[in-house]
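[SOLVED] Need 3D model of a three-part complex

Original post:
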Amino acid sequence: MIRRWTREDFNRPTLRVARDLLGKFLVRADGLAGMISETEAYKGPADLACHAAKGRRTARVEPLYMEGGTAYVYLCYGIHWLFNVSSAGAEKPEAVLVRGGVVDGKRFDGPGRFTQALGLDGGFNREDLPTSSRLWIEDRGVKARDVLRGPRIGIDYAGAYWAARPWRFWIRQER
DNA sequence: CGGCTGATTCGCT
DNA sequence: GCGAATCAGCCGC
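Solution:
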């Protein structure tokens, strides 16, 4: 049975959303879909690794401040589109970064690779996933087992404390 | 308006 | 393991 995520699913504590997104599917209207296997939580103004750190509020990061379920897609290093979805509610600039998933049976580890596999780019920025006809999240009944948790990647610039928060979640890969 | 930087990835050594 | 690719956004002057 398939259930589409609603506003209420996104407007929950960010760590919960990050954990629960594992095993869910990011679905495009054309049928292309990816099962999410790795996420990271970014928790607002106090989190120095978050783009809204210290209350920063610019045009780019505005999606973080919008209702839960708003896509935040930005260009990193001038090359890679990274896909996030806002969480926790309007005016709470928190979000979950999708760092990997499975598309067409193939694993795509890395946030840039995953978005490329799904053909996502800045055109999906600010998309409202609960109501969009182009992009949404589906629960297809997959139970995420063997969930692991650890520090986030690539944010050493935020300092040792924030780099050490165990706010990355992933499904253990068999090999 | 110039300079710097990054929630990454890939290719070469 | 290291550095290049490549550019929008952000900050300081």
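Edit: Strands of chain A lie at 3-4, 25-28, 33-43, 71-76, 80-87, 94-103, 106-109, 135-139, 147-150, 168-171.
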